[in-house]
C-alpha cells in the first residue's frame, strides 16, 4: 500500500493567492452563519503551501487533496471538514479542532498536533480521485491502491483521538504522549517506536497492529485488544493492564514490571539501606530504586521511602498508610486502590500516576521545605494524575500542582487546596464540601458547581 508522501510528490495543484483564499474564507463564514451570499469553501486540490490559516473556522470545508505543506492551522476549526488525501506534512495544527474530520489517506508526516481535538476523526486509508481536466464526468485515480494515512514522526502530545479510526495507518515514531485514544481503532496500523507514555487507550482496538518498540509507560490499557499485534520490545512498565487482550500477540522482549524476588534483591534490605541513606543525609547507605517493580498488595505501612526512586512502580492494592514518601518519584506509577491514609507525600512527584480508588484521607501533599534558611519549598506535583474516586478528605494539598488532573468523583471534603494549581483539572462530581480553595488556580477546570 503506497504512502501519501510518495503520492503527493508530483501531484498538480493550482495555486491561490492570499486574497483569493481570504475571499473564499469570507464567503465560507457567511455560509456557516446562514447569511446571504455565503458558499461552502471549495479548496479541492488547491496549493496552500505555507499559508497561515490559524484561527480560521473551516468547519465543513472541502479541502480534499489540498496541499497544506508547512501550513499554519493553529487553533483552526475544522469540524467535519474534508481533508481526504490532503498533504499536511509538517503543518502546525496545534490545538486545532478536527472533530469528525475526514482525514482518510492524508499525510501528516512531521505535523504538530499537540493538544488538538480529533474525536471521531476518520484516518483510515482511502483512494484519492479527481476529475480529469476538460472531462468533468471522468474520475482519475492517483494510485492503483488506496493511500494509507500517515502520521509518521508527527507530534500529537495530549491530542484527543477518542473513537478515531486509524486502521492501517502509518504512525511510526510519532509522539503521542498523554494522548487520549479511548475507543479508537488502530487495527493493522504501524506504530513502531511510537511514544505513547501516559496515553489513555481504554477500549481501543490495536489488533494486528505493529507496536514493536512502542513506549507505553503509565498508559491505561484497560479493555484494549492487542490480538495478533506485534508488541516485541514494547515498554509496558507502569501500564494499567486490566481485561487487556493479548491473544496471539507477539511479546518477545517486552519490558514489564518484575516482582522483587525476580531481581534477586531483598526489599527489606533495600528499605533498610535507604533509611541509613536518609538519616545520614546521603553520606552512608544507598538510595532505594524501586522503579519498574511490581509491589502489588504488599504491606508497607509506616515505611520510610522519602526521596526514593519509584518511577513506574506497581503498588496496586498496597498498604502504605502513614508511610514517609516525601520527595519520592512516583511518576507514571500504578497506585490503584492503594492505602495512603495519613502518609507523608510532601513534594512528591505523582505526575501521570494512576491512583483510582486510592485511600488518601488526611495525607500530606503540601510543599516540602528544602532550604530552611531561605524558606525554599518544593510543591507536590500531580500533573495529569488519575485521581478518579480517590478519598482525599481532610488531605493537605496546599500549593499542589494538579494541572489537568482527573478528579472525577473524588472526595475532597475538608481538603486544604489553598494556592493549588487546578487549571484544566476535571472535578466532575467531586465532593468539595468544606474544601479550602483560597488562592487556587481554577482556569479551565471542569465540573465546578461552586467556589
TrEMBL record:
InterPro entries: 5peptide_repeat, Pentapeptide-BTB/POZ_domain. PANTHER family: BTB_POZ DOMAIN-CONTAINING PROTEIN KCTD9. This is Pentapeptide repeat-containing protein. The lineage of its organism: Bacteria, Pseudomonadati, Pseudomonadota, Alphaproteobacteria, Rhodospirillales.
